[in-house]
Design goal:
Blueprint: H1 4-8, H2 12-38, H3 48-67, H4 82-112, H5 116-137, H6 149-157, H7 160-168, H8 171-175, H9 177-198, E1 204-206, E2 209-212, E3 215-218, H10 219-222, H11 226-243, H12 247-279, E4 293-294, E5 300-301, H13 309-332, H14 339-347
Antiparallel strand pairs: 1-2, 2-3, 4-5
Helix pairs in contact: 2-5, 3-7, 3-11, 4-5, 5-6, 5-7, 7-11, 9-12, 11-12, 11-13, 12-13
Keywords: Cell membrane, Hydrolase, Membrane, Protease, Transmembrane, Transmembrane helix
Transmembrane segments: 16-36, 43-60, 89-108, 120-138, 153-175, 187-204, 224-244, 251-271, 312-332
Region (Disordered): 340-361
Length: 361
C-alpha cells in the first residue's frame, strides 16, 4: 500500500477526496455482493476489489510524484486559462450528475433491494465521482504550482480502471444480460450445427436445441458465453491497465479479450456437443471421470458429480483465454529500435532495446 507518510503529506482536500471515494467504493461493493454470491456468471466480482487495489498501489509512484511536485521535467502552467476553467466546470457538472446518479441508485437499493437499474446507477455514479474528484484535486501540487491541463487529464486517467471496473462486475452486462444471451445463443447454435453437419454427423436443429442420436442438447446448457465474456473483459481490462502504455493498445486488448471469449466459447460448445453425441445428453452435467459414487449399501449413486463435464470445460476455455492474453502482451509491447540507435548500442557493447518494455504503472 502507499506509504503512510506519503499519503499524509498530501493536501487535506486530496486526503478527504480519497476517503470519500473509498466510502462510495464500499457502498458499491455492498450492493454488488448480492450478484457475486448468487450468480455464477459474476462470481469473478470478488476479484475486482483486489485488482483495483493493486492498480492503485502500482500507480502510486506516479500519483505521488505529480501531487508532491517531484516531476522536474514537466512544465507547469502559471495560472488556469479559459480552457482549463471550462474543463473544470464540465468536471464539476459531471461530478454533480454522478452524485445524483449514485444517490438515486442508493435509494432504489434501500427501497427495493438489489436491482439492475439501481446497481447500474451506483456503479456509473461511482465512476463519475472518482474521475471527477481526481481531476479536481489535481489542480496544484504541494509546492503551490498550478498543473497543466495535460497533466491533470493524465492524472485522471490513472484512475480510469479503478473507477470503471465496477461496471464490468455485474450491472452493465447484467442490464443487457437477456439481449446478450439471445444473440450469443443464436450464433453459437448456428456455428455448432454447421460444424457438425459439415463433418457428417447427424444433428437436427430446432431453435437453440440440437437433436442428437442420444438425446437433445440445449445450447444454453452448454454455454451462453456470458460468463466467459464478462470474465475475459475484466481480465483484459486489468492487463491493459497495468501492462500497456498506449490508449489504442488498451482498447485493442479489451476488444481481443471479447473475441477470444467468443471463440473459446465456441470451442467449449463443440466439445460439449461432441460429448453428448458420444455419451448422451445427460452426460454433460455428469462426472467427467464417469465414476459414480458408491452408496453405503454398495450401490452406485448416478447423481454424484465430482467434477462435471460442463464446468470443467468452461473453466478450461477461460484459462486458455487468459493464457493467450498473457502471450499477447510481449507482442503489444514489442519495440523496434531505429538503425542508428542499434548501432550506438553495438558500439557501446550493449544489447539493443528492441523488444524490451516498461509496464504502464
Amino acid at each position: 500500500m502507499p506509504g503512510k507518510a506519503d499519503f499524509f503529506s498530501l493536501p487535506r482536500t486530496t486526503q478527504f477526496a480519497f476517503w470519500l471515494g473509498l466510502v462510495f467504493v464500499g457502498l458499491v461493493i455492498y450492493d454488488q455482493l448480492f450478484y457475486w454470491s448468487n450468480m455464477e456468471d459474476y462470481s469473478f466480482g470478488y476479484l475486482v476489489p483486489i485488482f483495483v487495489a493493486y492498480v492503485i498501489y502500482d500507480r502510486w509512484p506516479k500519483v505521488r510524484a505529480l501531487l508532491l511536485g517531484e516531476n522536474d521535467s514537466r512544465l507547469a502552467s502559471t495560472k488556469p486559462d479559459w480552457f482549463m476553467r471550462t474543463t473544470e466546470v464540465v468536471f464539476y457538472l459531471g461530478l454533480t450528475t454522478a452524485l445524483l446518479m449514485f444517490l438515486l441508485g442508493g435509494l432504489i437499493l434501500a427501497s427495493q433491494g438489489p436491482s439492475n437499474q439501481g446497481s447500474l446507477l451506483m456503479a456509473a455514479g461511482l465512476g463519475g465521482i472518482v474521475l471527477g474528484l481526481a481531476f479536481l484535486v489535481a489542480r496544484e501540487d504541494t509546492k503551490g504550482r498550478i498543473l497543466s491541463w495535460k497533466e491533470r487529464v493524465g492524472f485522471t486517467f490513472l484512475f480510469l480502471f479503478p473507477a470503471l471496473a465496477w461496471l464490468i462486475s455485474a450491472p452493465m452486462v447484467m442490464y443487457m444480460d437477456s439481449t446478450v444471451k439471445l444473440v450469443l445463443l443464436e450464433w453459437v447454435t448456428k456455428i455448432v450445427f454447421s460444424v457438425f453437419n459439415f463433418l457428417g454427423f447427424t444433428v437436427i436443429r430446432s431453435g437453440n436445441v440440437l437433436e442428437l442420436p442420444k438425446g437433445e442438447v440445449g445450447v444454453a446448457d452448454a454455454c451462453s458465453g456470458v460468463r466467459s465474456l464478462t470474465g475475459c473483459i475484466f481480465v483484459g481490462s486489468f492487463m491493459a491497465a497495468v501492462f500497456l502504455d498506449r490508449f489504442w493498445k488498451k482498447v485493442l486488448m479489451v476488444g481481443l479479450s471479447m473475441v477470444l471469449a467468443f471463440v473459446t466459447n465456441i470451442m467449449r460448445s463443440l466439445f460439449l456437443t461432441g460429448w453428448a453425441y458420444a455419451y448422451g445428453s445427460g452426460a454433460i452435467d455428469g462426472d467427467i471421470f464417469r465414476n459414480p459414487h458408491t452408496l453405503p449399501d454398495g450401490s452406485e449413486n448416478p447423481d454424484f458429480v465430482f467434477a462435471s463435464v460442463h464446468d470443467i470445460a468452461g473453466y478450461s476455455v477461460m484459462g486458455l483465454t487468459f493464457v493467450i492474453l498473457l502471450m499477447l502482451l510481449p507482442i503489444f509491447n514489442f519495440k523496434i529500435a531505429p538503425p542508428e540507435e542499434e548501432e550506438e548500442h553495438e558500439e557501446a557493447g550493449e544489447s539493443p532495446p528492441g523488444g524490451q518494455h516498461e509496464p504502464n504503472a
